[in-house]
Specification:
The protein is an alpha/beta fold. It is 42% helix and 16% strand. The radius of gyration is 21 Å and the shape is globular.
Length: 371
């Protein structure tokens, strides 16, 4: 039987390149989803990324930040998006980051075309801090036929922010990665002793990389940590490592494309996840596990939901709790080996083809209700 054709319009109001977790996810997702996808984004465009989409259109409306010019900007963007919808005539619209400007433009111009809002986390964080952003999120939610969250924890927060008026529209579809592309170390390390640890992500307050650095100063064993990423706290983190006498045990590497990160991951003994506030899903946790790395994670609801018992939890933001977990893992090789096996088994649950299939099924269900 031939699969039903779907013509999807989607987009993210950012440079069209896989430069962050959300953008990488979207690239993987639409490669894994049969149909025709038109993507709206921003210049510069990474030409290698265009393989994920049948058409990539660069938005021309100049972006403007929150302030007196924001409402006119959304109006101008809405006019541009409305003209594109009229031209493309999609079966469905996927509004990533509901509440942000592009999703607002979709919601104001879709007409009878069903919208599926897909939450990523930053959109929810902003809505929790700002009344105007919360109003925007509610505007988009009201216009949607369905709202997708990657975890039950994030779905609950969206439900709360929207006054539980759209509970029946919210679905949980876990994110995924191309699990088959991951590589596991040929010769796993043996024995006990200090660990070679890796942390990857934005260097900001919520990601709380400082927890990992301060934990190293409290461990009984001289574990080593490689921090991969960029962000506003990079200089502060480097200075803190020096203050704690960890200059030789903490290495800072810049943000790297996923292909390069994935080449590096098998060289480490374990992955350290330090986010202390909202985390939508924790995609990097699955990336680490797919490469056979045991994961030590801050015990947030979304991370616990994603990992189950396949990782080692510690109290979010607590360096002593993390230090104790790292030392225990360093001392118990058999336990670390069991964690590596559990990591691989858990990662297999989150293949991007499953994410794509479930989102496609939801999109088909929604479009059939609107015909």
């Amino acid at each position: 039987m031939t699969a039903k054709f779907l013509n999807i319009l989607t987009g993210i109001n950012r440079p069209s390149a896989p430069s962050s977790g959300g953008m990488i996810l979207v690239s993987d997702l639409y490669r894994a989803m049969p149909g025709h996808t038109t993507f709206l984004g921003r210049a510069p465009v990474d030409q290698f990324w265009t393989a994920a989409f049948d058409q990539l259109i660069t938005l021309s409306t100049r972006k403007r930040p929150l302030g007196p010019d924001f409402a006119p900007y959304v109006d101008e963007l809405t006019r541009e998006v409305g003209a594109l919808i009229e031209k493309i005539q999609p079966n469905a619209i996927h509004a990533h980051y509901p509440g942000f400007a592009l999703s607002q433009a979709f919601s104001r111009t879709a007409g009878n075309i069903p919208i599926i809002a897909i939450a990523h986390g930053p959109d929810v964080m902003v809505a929790e801090r700002s009344a105007s952003e919360r109003e925007s999120l509610n505007e988009v939610a009201a216009a949607c036929a369905a709202i997708v969250a990657p975890s039950g924890a994030l779905a609950d927060r969206i439900d709360h922010l929207t006054g539980r008026r759209f509970t029946d529209r919210i679905s949980v579809i876990p994110w995924g990665i191309p699990v088959g592309d991951a590589r596991v170390r040929d010769q796993p390390p043996t024995g006990t002793g200090p660990l070679s640890l890796v942390h990857a992500g934005r260097l900001d307050d919520n990601k709380s990389t400082i927890t990992a650095i301060e934990a190293l100063a409290l461990t009984e064993q001289p574990h080593r940590l490689t921090v991969i990423g960029h962000g506003i706290l990079r200089e502060h983190l480097e200075q803190r490592a020096i203050e704690l006498g960890l200059r030789d045990r903490v290495q800072f590497d810049p943000f790297m494309p996923r292909a390069e990160l994935w080449r590096r991951l098998p060289d480490f003994d374990a992955f350290v996840f330090t986010t202390k506030g909202l985390e939508a899903f924790g995609l990097v946790l699955i990336e680490a596990q797919a490469h056979g790395l045991p994961v030590v994670f801050s015990d947030l609801p979304s991370a616990r939901e994603t990992l189950g018992s396949s990782g080692v939890p510690y109290t979010p933001g607590d360096p002593r709790s993390l230090a104790a977990a790292l030392d225990e893992m360093g001392r118990d090789f058999r336990w670390r080996t069991a964690l590596a096996k559990a990591a691989l088994n858990n990662a297999r649950r989150y293949d991007i083809t499953t994410t794509g299939r479930r989102l496609r099924e939801l999109t088909l269900r929604v479009t059939s209700q609107h015909t």
